[in-house]
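Reading a protein record of the kind used here takes only a little practice. An example makes this concrete, so a full record is given next.
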Amino acid sequence: MAATPGEEEPLLPQQHQQQESSLLRWLPSSKPQPGQPTWGHFLQTWKIPLILFYYGFCSSTLIVINKVAVSNLRAPVFILVLQLLFAAGSVKFLAIWGTLDAEKLQWRLVRPFLLIIVGFLGTVFANIKVLVYSNVETFITFRSSTPLVLSVFDYLFLGRKLPGGRSIFSILLLILSCSGYTYYDQGFKLEAYTWLCVWYIFFLFEACYVKHVCDTVLMSNWGRVYYTNLLSGLALLVVFPLCRTEHQLLQQTHFTHAQLFLLCLSCAVGVCMSHAGYLMRSNVSATAGVVVGVVCKLGSVVLNLLIWDQHASPVQLAFLVLGLAGGSLFQQAPLREKPPKLPRTVGEQQPDSHTPREKDVKS
């Protein structure tokens, strides 16, 4: 896989300082003794594995929690609005109390987030709609094919090379997995695969554009979480009155203690998922981040098998494992080498003005 303890995306000094201080805030402080490793050294050495574990735990649990919540309430938009506004409110409250750092609303920062909101809302809303009409395994298998297109987007827009032979082989396994799973899907529903196609388009756009914003817009990680959830929640709150079906269902629903606990749990995990998602995207490439998300969904399958009765057939589960195995073989393509801005020796000509700007360093 692409993300190893030594590989990470280049960060601006301010970004590096913000992320490290954000992580150190939650660790016990003690004066290091001579010769003893410090918390800062530990975080710097194991930063990527810790981030991936954090993201994997949130990602594998949230999809199952959302599936249970949607199946109980049948009101996906209502659940999504609660999750978004709860996340934004939690970040704002903790920022006021000085527990974490998050930028206040500013137009110069809101502007690049407008397209993120479109991609984020489209992705999450289509995701919830998919879970209404299909099981978790169907969604996970189709998600496992996204690195194929994202690797091309990384090459075209984010300055990386095309994937090598090992990665191409893994992508072929992913395609075989999706094709076989769909062929043996006895509970085929047109609505489910229609929403899967909608989700696919929004997801690919959001994955690339968010990575671009993380690399070019200087913000704290909690600031990105606050902006995304607040703006998305307000936008969806405007649309919510049009969801008449959900209004009727909610009027007839008498919330039990179990349902209220489920809503609170989904909101809490949603905050962590949003924070972990931005933290990971700031440290790995777009394609590598998606591959990590695909592989960690194996935890979703395990949880789903333990608590749910709407599962895929054994043949479909075999194709699912094949797809996850293919995703684990994927290797992040390195950044393309850029010609230097300045001549290396005296007398060497300066590159032309149309030479691509040197923005990345080889990871």
